[in-house]
Write a structure and sequence with these properties.
By secondary structure, the chain is of the alpha/beta class. Helices cover 36% and strands 14% of the residues. The protein has a single domain, classed as NADP-dependent oxidoreductase domain (TIM Barrel), CATH 3.20.20. A hairpin with a 5-residue loop joins strand 6 and strand 7. The longest helix is centred in the last third of the chain and has 19 residues.
């Protein structure tokens, strides 16, 4: 497995990571991408390590809590082989539902102690703030996160779905090694200029030396090419219930985008998912996508993307696709994302 650096502080990881959210679902939606299989999830994490994929992505809100427990169980006796990224920043109710965001230092400290316990480790490699709390200055939150670096509980800091201004302010307090953001063939917002016409998110990350970690690099499974139509998904599947890009009208237009991906895949004897991931890897050496899966078979297929080289014709065809039809989240979810 190839390796890449995230940021300029020394964080070196596998060229692709493993997103684990689907193994447990997220707070309030345990079956968001199908029924979880804990044994297969643990086996998938362990298989990732066998393949040299050591960058594992989890979060407090996944489950909630149970995802970190699963990852911790999978890493028993193998902690030194893994680079663990986890996240805090949501307020979670006693019955396990999301109740807004919470970037207060005291919530960060509480979350970190819980994450360490569930993961069975005494340090987190990459500690993200999951979403910005606009009621707490970013300097205050990142300052408290930096204290955990000095205490040895955290090695590197990251942010997720935050604006250019927030990135700059946070990075001035303590170096940020990675920005996690949705980025894929059908979601390219980080490439765009800022609203004022200045450097956008990707350009700012590169100016500051911050690595880019695309989540949902396969469009929540759509770019994998084998996902059933929305009305054939389980009734409680997140995509059927809440994803505008799978809604009538948008979904049909997005199928045309998928056909272009299939054409490139056919030329290379590759899968659609491998093409989508290879495209991201060729956007720059500072990009490390974290495709999520619950199964070893998909993991093994995804891992082969590092050997797929797209040529100029392929890249031109894929670059011409533009973004998908429809917003990537509902208005409620978009309200937690900075732009």
């Amino acid at each position: 497995m190839q390796r890449r650096n995230l940021g300029s502080q020394g964080l070196n990881v596998s060229a692709i990571g493993l997103g684990t959210m689907g193994m447990t679902g997220v707070a309030g939606m345990p079956h968001m991408y199908g029924v979880p299989d804990e044994a297969e999830g643990i086996a998938t994490v362990q298989r990732a390590l066998d393949l040299g994929i050591d960058f594992l992505d989890t979060a407090e809100v996944y489950g909630p809590y149970s995802n970190e427990t699963l990852v911790g169980r999978a890493l028993a006796g193998r902690r030194s082989q893994a680079i663990i990224a986890t996240k805090f920043g949501f307020a979670i109710t006693p019955d396990g539902r999301i109740d807004g965001v919470d970037g207060r230092p005291e919530n960060m400290r509480r979350a970190l102690d819980g994450c360490l316990q569930r993961l069975g480790t005494d340090y987190i490699d990459l500690w993200y703030q999951h979403r910005r709390d606009r009621n707490v200055p970013i300097e205050e939150t990142v300052g408290a996160m930096a204290e955990q670096v000095h205490a040895g509980k955290v090695r590197y800091l990251g942010l997720s779905e935050m604006s250019v201004e927030t990135l700059r302010r946070a990075h001035a307090v303590h170096p940020i090694s990675a920005l996690q953001s949705e980025y894929s063939l059908w979601e390219r917002n980080i490439e765009e200029p800022a609203p004022d016409g200045g450097p956008g998110i990707m350009a700012t990350c590169r100016e500051l030396g911050i690595g880019i970690v695309p989540y949902s690099p396969l469009g929540r499974g759509f770019l994998g090419g084998a996902l059933p139509a929305p009305d054939k998904l389980p009734e409680n599947d997140y995509r059927r219930l809440h994803d505008p890009r799978f809604a009538a009208g948008h979904y049909e237009r997005n199928l045309a985008l998928l056909e272009s991906v299939r054409a490139v895949a056919a030329r290379h004897g590759a899968s659609e998912a491998q093409v989508a991931l290879a495209w991201l890897l060729q956007r720059g050496p500072d990009i490390v996508p974290i495709p999520g899966t619950k199964r070893r078979s998909y993991l093994e297929s995804n891992a082969a993307c590092v050997d797929l080289q797209l040529d100029a014709t392929d890249l031109a065809q894929l670059d011409a696709l533009g973004s998908a039809s429809g917003p990537r989240y509902t208005e409620r979810s978009l309200a937690t994302i900075e732009r």
